[in-house]
Design a protein that fits this description.
transferase, about 150 residues, ligase activity, nucleotidyltransferase, mainly alpha, GlnE_rpt_dom, 9 helices, GlnE, about 70% helix
């Protein structure tokens, strides 16, 4: 797809931040290639480029996860809403325990009890976020393998 002039300007605003933070990660070539594929996938979705521009921590997490895992980059390309997960390190690397999972799932059910389609959409997005968080905690070493399992 072709990017609008506005999208290109937003990309140009994010790129220097990405390049500056790149020096802080290992596997810089892979991190850059993968993170650029994520950025390219959201070029025409201004909210995500603005999110990254305004949140240096999100860029740091994006580069770190892309450096460590092609799968994480592919998931972000496929489900760009997961970029929201990069905003808060305490959430990103701390997957919910069973009680927390049940509470959040119940809250989604309560919110959407009369709308099956809304429930399915929200529960699907929620599931992707939970898997993403477990994977992020796993590959960065924030969670021991027994907890990941």
């Amino acid at each position: 797809t072709h990017a609008s002039a506005e999208a290109v300007e937003r990309f140009k605003a994010v790129l220097p931040l990405v390049l500056t933070e790149l020096s802080q990660v290992d596997n810089q070539t892979l991190a850059l290639e993968r993170s650029l594929s994520v950025l390219a996938s959201v070029m025409n979705r201004s909210v995500y480029l603005v999110l990254l521009k305004e949140n240096l921590q999100a860029i740091k997490h994006l580069l770190q996860l892309c450096a460590l895992s092609a799968w994480m980059a592919e998931v972000l390309v496929k489900y760009p809403a997961l970029l929201d997960q990069l905003l808060d390190e305490s959430i990103l690397y701390e997957p919910l325990d069973l009680i927390g999972l049940k509470q959040e799932a119940s809250a989604i059910l309560a919110e959407t009890f009369d709308d099956d389609e809304a429930f399915m959409n929200q529960i699907r997005q929620w599931k992707h976020a939970q898997v993403f968080r477990v994977a992020a905690a796993d590959i960065t070493g924030h969670l021991p393998i027994m907890k990941v399992s």
